[in-house]
Amino acid sequence: MEVVVTAKIILNKLDISGKLIAFDYDKKAASTLPKILLINDNFSNMKNYLKNMNISSVDGFLCDLGLSSLQIDNKDYGLSYRFDSLLDMQINKNARISAKEIINNYSFQELADIFYYYGEERRAKRIARKICEQRRKEEINPNKQLANTVVSCFPRKNINRRRWHTKIREKN
Ligand SMILES: C[S@@+](CC[C@H](N)C(=O)[O-])C[C@H]1O[C@@H](n2cnc3c(N)ncnc32)[C@H](O)[C@@H]1O
User: Considering the entire predicted model, what is its pTM?
Assistant: First the structure.
């Protein structure tokens, strides 16, 4: 997965002494461009890396945060319920905690907080309760199983039959 478009624009603007340092904790992120140092680690470790490289100031930061469509479209990450993949959802494989472990082991309150505070989901408690009920019967694993559990927390009239998972929030 090449880190390209933005990097090329910046590289074109650098003078001879300029340096571009990029961070992406996805080990698949790669660059064959010259004059770019790509570090496969968390942004949060940036300060330490710069310190170790004796860099005390930079001209600028460009933060392109979140996920890339390449990651969403890659079945191996288990991010999209378009594919029947394992409930993984880790981009940083060093994180050592998968969505499967969280969904199947976190307490009702911890799950509800994740959905409410990070997902801004009004039905956070209902979804967390349903997950806890479901996992008492069997482990929730393929991501479609989780998607179905979540969908069952919404009234049928709110579900667009063709693109049901993505349409729930919009109609709710
Ligand atoms: C929107 S994509 C940007 C992709 C990049 N600009 C390119 O052209 O390939 C966001 C990237 O941030 C990475 N990322 C998300 N959170 C991170 C973090 N805390 N530390 C390091 N990388 C992170 C993801 O792996 C993803 O590749």
Answer: 0.76
